[in-house]
Amino acid sequence: MMKNRALTTALLLLLLTPLAAQAQDYDFIRRDANVLHYDSTSPAMTALFARWQRLAATGSGNLNIVHIGGSHVQAGTLSNTIRCNLLAAYPDLVASRGMLFPYSAAARCNNPADYRIHCREKMILTRCVAKEYDYPLGLCGIAVTAADTLTEIQVVLNEPRIDYATNRVVVIGHSDQEVVPFLRVDGRDLQPSYISQTTGRYVFNLGNSVDSFAVMIPCELGQQFTLSGLYLGNRHAGITYSSIGVNGAAVPDYLRCTHFVRDLRMLHPDLVVFGIGINDAVPTNFDTAAFRQNYLQLIDSVRAANPDCAFIFVTNNDSYRKTGRRKYSVNTNGQLAREVFYRLAHDVDGAVWDQFEIMGGLKSMDKWRLAKLGRPDRVHFTAAGYQLLGDLFSEALLKALSSDTNTLTH
Known about the structure:
Layout (H helix, E strand, L loop, with lengths): L8 H15 L12 E2 L5 H16 L3 E8 L1 H4 L2 H13 L8 E3 L14 E4 L5 E4 L14 E6 L2 E8 L8 E9 L7 E4 L2 E3 L3 E3 L4 E10 L1 E7 L5 E10 L4 E8 L5 H5 L4 H8 L3 E5 L12 H18 L4 E5 L5 E5 L2 E4 L2 H16 L2 E3 L1 H5 L4 H7 L12 H19 L9
Parallel strand pairs: 2-15, 2-16, 16-17, 17-20
Antiparallel strand pairs: 1-20, 3-14, 4-7, 5-6, 6-14, 7-13, 8-12, 8-14, 9-10, 9-13, 11-12, 18-19
C-alpha cells in the first residue's frame, strides 16, 4: 500500500484555492451557488463518496466516472479540465484514460486537445443526431467507417500533466465482412488477443505501456469496418474519467443508440455526470414532461449497466436564440430545464450542479460573452470559459467530498 493516499479536508480546501481565484475576477458569477445540491442522506451519493474516500485511503480499487453531453463535452476542454483537477487533487490515483473517440478521423469533426488523431484516409461519419443512419451506434453516439482500403488511425495521448500510458486497448466496432482490425505499436503489428462479436470488442493486451499507437483497419474492395469507440486501459488502481460528447445531441439521440448499455457495461460507471439538455431546450414549445421522461429512460439504461451508479446533473447554461442577422433573444427554457434537473435529482437520489445559477442566471451569457468567456453564438463558451466552468465544477465536487452537510434544496 502506498502512503499518503488520504487527503485531509484542510489539504483539499487548499487545493481548491487556485481554482476559486479565477471566478473572483468576474462579479456576475455567483460563487455562493457553486456547490453540489443533494440530500445528505442520499444512499447513492453517500456510497459514492465513501468509495472515493476508501480508494484515496487504501490506493486499492477503481472509481469510474463517465461525463455525457453534447458539444460542450465533445469539445473536450470542460471535461479535461475537470479530469486534470480531480487527478491533481489525487495524484496517486491516476488510472487509465478510459473511453475516447477518434473524432478527427472524419473530415470537419472537432477533436479534444488532450489526444491527437491523425487519419489520412478520411472516414465516413455517422452521428446519433442524424434522422436516419445505417449503423447501430453505441455509448459514444458516433461512429466512423472505413471502406475499400487499408485505413490507419494514429492515436497519440497529448496531455502533458498526466501519464495515461496504456497496456490494454479495446477497439469497439463491427464488420459484416468480418474485417479484423490490428494495432501497429512501435513498428510491430499486433493481432487481437481476444475478439467478441457479441460485444463488438477487439481486445489488445500489450506487453509494454505506450502513449501512442495506430489502429489499422485492413478493408479490401467491397469491405467496410465501423469503429464506434476506443477504450484505453491499464492495471493501475485509481480514477478513470471518460467523456462522451456529440455536437448537437439531445437526450432522445442517446436513447436511439442501440449498443449504449452494452458499451457502458465495459466502463461500469460509479458516477455519471449528465450534461445533456441545451439542445433539448432549443424549441419554443419545449416539453418539460417529455424531457423528464426521456431522461428517466436514459437513467434506466445507465442503471442496466450498474444499478448502484450515482448521478450528477449539470443544468443548462444560460443561452440565446438567433432571431436575425446579429439579433438574439434570451432562451427562457433554461429556467424550465433547471426545474426538471432538480426534480430528476430528487427522483433518482442524485445531485445537481446548478450551472445556470452559477453563471449569473437569466441573460448572464451576454456578460460571459463580453468577458470573452462566451462565444458570439451565445450558446457555447470560449476555451477560457470552459476552463473556468471546469474549475468551478471541480471545486464543488471536491468540496462535497470533504463535507457531509449538503442538502438538495431549490
